[in-house]
Amino acid sequence: MTTCCLRSQCVLCLLAPGWPATGPMAEACGETHSRSISFRSMKCKFKFTSSFERHNDDNTFLVWVNEEEHLKVISIEKGGNMKAAFTRFCSGIQEVESKLNEKELEFMWNDHLGYILTCPSNLGTGLRAGVHVKLPNLSKRPEFEEVLKRLRLEKRTGGVDTEADSEVLDISNTDRLGFTEVQLVQVVVDGVKVLVEMEKRLEMEEGIDDLMPVQK
């Protein structure tokens, strides 16, 4: 389970130790993959060469500096405890923001658009709450895409920051703008609960028509 927030105008990194983007990168990536986070190559050759990542001791809270965004915060929780991942994320982002404020810096914010990010699709909260789940039966159904649409969810194979795995779906919130962070997390929690119940029905060769969500 991964909760991610991408926010700009950040110039520091918390929570050492970590790995530099140059040097023993192969060794670093090997361990990083094992905890479901992978480094990606820079999209632009003019990006800072000082891109790096820091994490806490148990690898459940990570901060990337100068990757896709100036700052990318990731909270990870194994199992189904989204509350733990979100609580850790909130505590961490508040600590980062307090350090910025000490240097008279702050995240870029607009009253109309919310947090300003490099990618326009992340404007607003910048929050992406994702759950890695296997849905072998439901994912093959022709109505699966419509179910996701009605739940305001989207799927990826693997995660936005993980290696692709055709058997693992990364289910996350479609929206970033127009909702609070708490609302978006709840959308994912409620939606995944429906998907899992559908998968259980199909595994027992039972119908799922009564579980079809209404359009939100």
Automatic annotation (TrEMBL):
InterPro entries attached to this UniProt entry: ATP-guanido_PTrfase, ATP-guanido_PTrfase_AS, ATP-guanido_PTrfase_cat, Gln_synth/guanido_kin_cat_dom
Reactions mediated catalytically: creatine + ATP = N-phosphocreatine + ADP + H(+)
A Pfam family reported for this protein in Swiss-Prot or TrEMBL: ATP-gua_Ptrans
Recorded superkingdom: Eukaryota
GO MF: ATP binding; creatine kinase activity
Signal peptide start-end: 1-20
Residues reported to bind ATP: 128-132, 155-160
Gene Ontology cellular component terms for the protein in this record: extracellular space
GO biological process annotation, one example: phosphocreatine biosynthetic process
E.C. designation(s): 2.7.3.2
Gene3D superfamilies named among the record's database cross-references: Glutamine synthetase/guanido kinase, catalytic domain
All copies of domain Phosphagen kinase C-terminal, residue ranges: 1-202
Keywords recorded for this protein, A-Z: ATP-binding, Kinase, Nucleotide-binding, Signal, Transferase
Entry's family note: Belongs to the ATP:guanido phosphotransferase family.
Protein name: creatine kinase
Organism expressing this protein natively: Hippocampus comes (Tiger tail seahorse)
